[in-house]
Amino acid sequence: MSGKQDFVSRFGGIFEHSPWVAERAYDARPDMPITAEDVHAGMVVAFRNATETERLDVLRAHPDLAGKLAVAGELTEDSKAEQASAGLDRLSAAEHARFTELNAAYMEKFGFPFIIAVKGLTKDDILEAFQSRVGNTPHQEFETAAAQVEKIAWLRLQSLLPGAQNA
Q: Exposure of 26 by Cβ count < 10 A (0-12 exposed, 13-18 middle, 19+ buried)?
């Protein structure tokens, strides 16, 4: 792979709708080996070194789980596949109503959508985490959501760059 434009083109979507994370990772280390571990490490450093407002913008770029974008079919391909893997595309009317209620309460309290790396989780696991995390303080939840964004990025990089080790 050569050049910043190629790097950003390939990895700019790893952090949801936030190609600046890939740009800064590349700028900090243009000679970075293109392995899941190295790209993830570089992108995590860029994300963590960003301002709180920039990090909040990344959190806000994530869709609600089983929310209006999913219903309208407007999720990114990564988000669509991730949510489908947890069964969020097959909720009953009552389950969908519960997710909608929790999404609204969470958004009102924290100002960004509930974020969780859904790979390997069921809708019941996600609901349990949702119900538990809505009780967090704003600072706790900002840090928890940011850690989940980093985990989602790792999972996306593993699918892009075969041979990645589990983190």
A: buried
Residue of 40, 62, 96, 139 with catalytic role = 62
Burial class of residue 100 in the structure, from the number of CB atoms within 10 Å of its CB (0-12 exposed, 13-18 middle, 19+ buried): middle
Q: What is the mean pLDDT of the chain?
A: 89
Spatial CA neighbour of 151 closest among 112, 113, 117: 117
Q: Is the pLDDT of residue 166 over 60?
A: no
Domain boundaries, the chain: 3-56, 64-135
d(CA 113, CA 107): 5
Which residue matches tokens 């519960």?
98
Q: What is the pLDDT of residues 129-159, one digit of tens each?
A: 999 999 999 999 999 999 999 999 999 999 9
Distance separating the N- and C-terminal Cα atoms of the chain: 24
pLDDT at 47 exceeding the cut of 90: yes
CATH topology (fold) of 64-135: UraD-like (1.10.3330)
For the question of residue 62 being annotated catalytic, the response is yes
Q: Report the pLDDT value the prediction gives residue 167, as an integer from 0 to 100.
A: 45
